[in-house]
Structure formats: structure tokens, C-alpha cells
Design goal:
Elements (H helix, E strand, L loop, with lengths): L1 H46 L5 H10 L3 H5 L6 H33 L14 H6 L2 H45 L7 E9 L7 E9 L1
Antiparallel strand pairs: 1-2
């Protein structure tokens, strides 16, 4: 009976020893793997190229929207290209009216009866009922109005282009800028010595942000 009991105890302590050794081996392997993963992550971070605002600005200046792609702000692309498409349509619309009415003005006042582009804007009855001066005045006002609208659309398009470049630059700065709310408030004792024989003790407040 003692031999059996002793054998059971040997087996029990042997199993306990091997389990402890195996746990220590697993822990060492885990520490090694964790250290290797950390080293790989540090190496990856060190190799990762920096995000440069100047590059984002240059990209958007060369091709609108490219800086936003560089900043990974893909949701802004429909706004940018939709804006340029709308503004381009507006420029083309007012430019066509301006050129067409300008040609109609010249056709109305020349001596060639075959040039009748002014009929695009006026009916023959209107031309017969109104004097040439009245029709010229109407055409001149329309020409000036469409020219002004076309110029405004061109200026707005230029402003939209600059806004696209500025947006890429600001977004790139925010990507690299630390905006975390890491504020620290410290209270620590300090020795106040105003050139007197007896120094005084006080407290110092400091903020870290």
C-alpha cells in the first residue's frame, strides 16, 4: 500500500513539475513573440513615410481632388467634382448666350439680309413692331448681363479651385496635429526666496497641454 501511495505521489508531483515547466516555456515564448511583434511594429512605424501637407497641397493644385485622396478624405470627391461640373456648366451656358446675342447684334446691324441669327431671340413680329434702336438696346443689355454672369462664374470657379487646395492643406495639417485633450494639472511645493534671509514655502500650479 505504501508503494502504491508513493507511486501516486511521484506521478502527481511529476505532472505538476512538467505543467509548471510547460507554463514557463509558454510564457517565455509569449514574451518573445510579443517582443518581436513590438519590434516589427516599431520598425514599421519608423519606415512609414510622413504625411506631408506640402504634398497634399501640390496634389490638389495639379489635379483637384488628388490632395483629398492623399488625405484619405474620399467623401469630399463628389463635392469637389460636382462643384466643378456645375460651375463649368454655368460658364458654358452664359458664354453661349453672350456669344449668340453678340452675333445677333452684329447680324441685326449689318447689310446682309441672309444673316438672321437674331431670330433666335426675337420673333419677326417683334422686330416689325419695334424700332432698331429699341431692339439694339435690349440686345446690348442682354449681352452685358450674360457677360457679367459668365465672369462671375469664372471668378467663383477660381475661388472654388483655391478652396480645394486650401482644404487639402488644412486636412493634411490636422492629420499630423495632436488634438487630444491631454491636459495635466500639477500642484507641487516650491521654495520662495526673494533675496531675504528667511525663505518661505508655497505651492506652484502648472498646466501641461
Amino acid at each position: 500500500m505504501k508503494i502504491v501511495t508513493r507511486g501516486i505521489l511521484y506521478v502527481f508531483f511529476g505532472m505538476l513539475f512538467f505543467q509548471t515547466a510547460e507554463a514557463q516555456t509558454d510564457m517565455q515564448d509569449s514574451v518573445i513573440v510579443t517582443a518581436q511583434d513590438t519590434l516589427v511594429e516599431m520598425q514599421t512605424d519608423s519606415v512609414k513615410p510622413p504625411h506631408l501637407p506640402a504634398r497634399a497641397t501640390m496634389f490638389s493644385a495639379v489635379l483637384p481632388g488628388l490632395g483629398q485622396i492623399y488625405n484619405k478624405k474620399y467623401w469630399k470627391l463628389p463635392i469637389i467634382y460636382g462643384g466643378f461640373i456645375g460651375l463649368g456648366y454655368g460658364i458654358n451656358y452664359f458664354s453661349s448666350l453672350y456669344n449668340g446675342q453678340k452675333k445677333a447684334y452684329f447680324d441685326l446691324n449689318d447689310s446682309d439680309p441672309e444673316t438672321k441669327s437674331y431670330l433666335t431671340y426675337f420673333t419677326e413680329s417683334y422686330i416689325e413692331e419695334n424700332s432698331l434702336t429699341t431692339i439694339n438696346t435690349t440686345l446690348t443689355r442682354a449681352i452685358e448681363s450674360n457677360r457679367r454672369q459668365r465672369d462671375i462664374m469664372i471668378i467663383v470657379t477660381a475661388g472654388f479651385y483655391l478652396l480645394n487646395v486650401l482644404d487639402a492643406n488644412v486636412d493634411a495639417h490636422f492629420i499630423t496635429f495632436d488634438i487630444s485633450e491631454d491636459l495635466t494639472f500639477n500642484v507641487e511645493p516650491v521654495l520662495i526666496d526673494h533675496c531675504s534671509a528667511i525663505p518661505a514655502f508655497g505651492a506652484q500650479l502648472s498646466f501641461t497641454f
